[in-house]
Amino acid sequence: MQEKTTLISTSQFHKDVYTGLTDFPKHLSSKYFYDAKGDKLFQEIMDMPEYYLTNSEYKILDKFKDEICRVFFKDAQEFDLVELGAGDGKKTKILLRHLSSEGIPFQYIPIDISENALNELESSINNELPSVKVKSLQGTYFETLEQLCKMQNKKKVIMFLGSNIGNLLHPQAIEFLTSIQELMNKDDIFFIGFDQKKDPQTILNAYNDNAGITERFNKNLLARINNELDADFDLDKFLHWEVYDPETGTAKSYLVAKENQKVHINGLDLTVSFEAWETIHTEISQKYDDNVVSWLADKAGLRISRIFSAENRFYKNYILKK
To answer: How far apart, in whole angstroms, are the C-alpha atoms of residue 285 and residue 198?
Structure first.
């Protein structure tokens, strides 16, 4: 049970924390993992041997970079390469470097909710690939993409890498894909990564590594609430827990209270009570196969044009068109 008073904060982060921790069961959005510390922890996660996603997609982009870039530039039109949730751009730079070396005219437009990540990305591209035109946009995907579409009429290649769509359940994924489709013109391309179903233990290991980096990443959300909302979460009193259902392809992350406790969130004038073993759901990571991706695309008014697969078939990148 929560002791509620009038919500006094106005930012979206404040509202979402209030809503999530006064709901039953409790939940917090994974999009708030990514503050300055969270960004660094996620870089560590991507370097973990257990976290196969980044390396698998990196190998796909490196192996098929010429084919992928030829598809992007098929109609010999200058285009905007728009990346949703750009992060550090490590994988994207494979394509940026190849497009630049081939003299293909394009502008790179990374979109991310983290201003810190965008600043670091733009700085690194200016240093490593000075010939690439970069225009970073900070904000949520659709608001920013919609503004971009109103401003420019060029062909768009929209990228959504890292299987970030896996943070959505299927109904939400269809809604997401439909929103993208509605912002696409006939010649536009949507290039998206989907993590594939595989040995359940491989998936569990990726989200619950022995070094505890993923645990620190999840618990950093509580630390962020402490710092930004003057709360007193004791991180040692929560357990990071991962589950995976191979039937649905759904992996879920939780923070589990180890004992009865009260947390005071002064910035929200809120006291939250936890019973022992009560959960906070923090993230979903959906896994797919070709049939599921085809079904999602069809529901959203899109079709699969090309598929690029990792050798072990752990991961695939799809080109979707209207």
So the answer is: 13
pLDDT given for residue 87 in this prediction: 78
What Rg value do the Cα atoms of the chain yield, rounded? 20
Q: What is the 3-state secondary structure (H, E, C) of 67-89?
A: HHHHHHCCCCCCEEEEEECCCCC
Closest-CA residue to 108 (of 91, 93, 127, 90): 93
Task: Give per-residue pLDDT as tens, 181-222.
Answer: 999 989 999 999 999 999 999 999 999 999 999 999 999 999
Report the distance separating Cα 221 and Cα 233, nearest Å.
10
In 3-state terms, what secondary structure has residue 291? helix
- Could you tell me which residues come within 8 angstroms of residue 248 by beta carbon, excluding any fewer than 6 positions away? none
The residues that bridge with 288 in the sheet, in sequence order, are: 196
Q: Is the separation of the CB atoms in 26 and 280 below 8 Å?
A: yes
Q: Mapping DSSP to helix (H, G, I), strand (E, B) and coil, where does residue 133 land?
A: strand
Work out the percent of the chain whose per-residue pLDDT is above 70: 97
Map residue 27 onto helix, strand or coil.
strand
For residue 310, the SS3 value is coil
Place of tokens 């905007």: 80
